[in-house]
Design brief:
Rossmann fold, Gfo/Idh/MocA_Oxidoreductase, Dihydrodipicolinate Reductase, domain 2, 6-stranded parallel β-sheet, globular, alpha/beta, 14 strands, 11 helices, GFO_IDH_MocA-like_dom, NAD(P)-bd_dom_sf, Putative dehydrogenase, nucleotide binding
């Protein structure tokens, strides 16, 4: 890989500025193109980031000066676009999920396995200070065996969130609701910390937004891991605010709790602050990202380019990205099985 890397962003929606601003902070990386099927959006973003605008991804496929493409498009476009880009030799960093459906994810996994180009999935919360510290403690075994985990996501997504972007809230385009869009990060962390999943049982329901969406706004699950650990998970988009994600890990010799993005160790009746998130500011002195879902896009994107340069495999690859989609698919299946069973019971 040459020293100077050219990049493009496909999709000029709400998440794209985090990618563009992160690219701007990297040495030796130049954002060449913003692509969006809305010409006005593409032009506006291109003007802001001093690059070219295009209305079709095909424009960049033959561009030798563009080696990396960021996908910030609706869920149902991720897999097909990524497959086309990998076949053209482009490295791809896609927003989560890697696909809107497990079948599409499996097709992308096959393509990525035979492509010399990199495919990365934006599970940026793995780069949070608390997540890294938890992973370090698990790997070192300093608290003994992991016994149980808990993940809670209580956020607010009202009708306007869905009506402003019609692809959201639909099975065909979003692929699900709170599970695949918001809480997927917490599910990813639970399986990353817990290890290989043996089973997941739970339910998904539409408790508050049934007149707006056809997917779930609330879900809960009980997860068993092959190492004997168990996890409880709860997520909803029907709260009144966006609360920080809560995580708890119970070990033989202590408890780790993530509260307000800070990690605490509770041991022998005492509580110790292990780490807190760094404050990242933009050019105007404002905090970048959103504290309730993490501010680590910059770290993830920088690491992706480091792996592109070195030719080593990015750690959050297709094989990692598909694990959480399998969890979600199994949870939907469990929910449907429970509903079917309940319908058979006499009233």
């Amino acid at each position: 890989m040459r020293d100077q890397i050219g990049s493009a962003i496909v999709g000029a929606g709400a998440i794209s500025p985090l990618h563009a601003d992160s690219i701007a902070k990297l040495n030796g990386v130049h954002l060449k193109m913003m692509v969006d099927n809305d010409p006005g959006k593409a032009a506006e973003a291109a003007e802001k980031y001093h690059c070219e605008a295009a209305g079709d991804m095909q424009t960049l496929l033959d561009r030798e000066d563009i080696q990396v493409v960021h996908l910030c498009t609706p869920h149902h476009l991720h897999a097909g676009m990524a497959i086309g880009l990998l076949r053209s030799g482009k490295h791809v960093l896609t927003e989560k999920p890697m696909a809107h459906h497990l079948h599409a994810a499996e097709a992308l996994l096959r393509e990525a396995s035979r492509s010399p180009a990199q495919l990365g999935i934006a599970f940026q919360n793995r780069y949070n200070a608390s997540s890294r510290k938890i992973r370090e403690i698990i790997d070192a075994g300093t608290l003994g065996r992991l016994l149980g985990l808990k993940g809670i996501v209580t956020w607010d997504r009202g009708p306007a969130y869905y009506t402003s972007s019609p692809w959201r809230g639909r099975w065909a385009t979003e692929g699900g609701g709170v599970l695949i869009n918001q809480a997927i990060h917490t599910l990813d962390l639970l399986q990353w910390f817990g290890g290989e999943v043996a089973s997941i049982h739970g339910s998904a329901s539409t408790d508050a937004l049934g007149d707006t969406i056809e997917v779930e706004d609330t879900a809960h699950a009980h997860i068993r891991f092959t190492n004997g650990a168990r996890a409880l998970f709860y997520a909803t988009n029907a709260y009144v605010s966006n609360s920080p994600v809560e995580l708890e890990l119970v070990f033989e010799q202590g408890v780790l709790q993530q509260r307000n993005d800070c990690l605490h160790l509770i041991q022998h009746g005492c509580e110790t602050l292990l780490c807190e998130p760094p404050i990242t500011l933009d050019e105007q002195g404002l905090v970048t990202g959103k504290s309730y879902w993490g501010t680590s896009h910059q770290l993830l994107i920088e690491d992706f380019y480091d792996h592109v340069r070195s030719g080593t495999r990015f750690p959050i690859h297709a094989g990692e990205g598909i694990k959480t989609l399998r969890l979600i698919a199994d949870l939907y299946a469990s929910s449907q099985a429970q509903a079917t069973e309940m319908s058979k019971r006499p009233t």
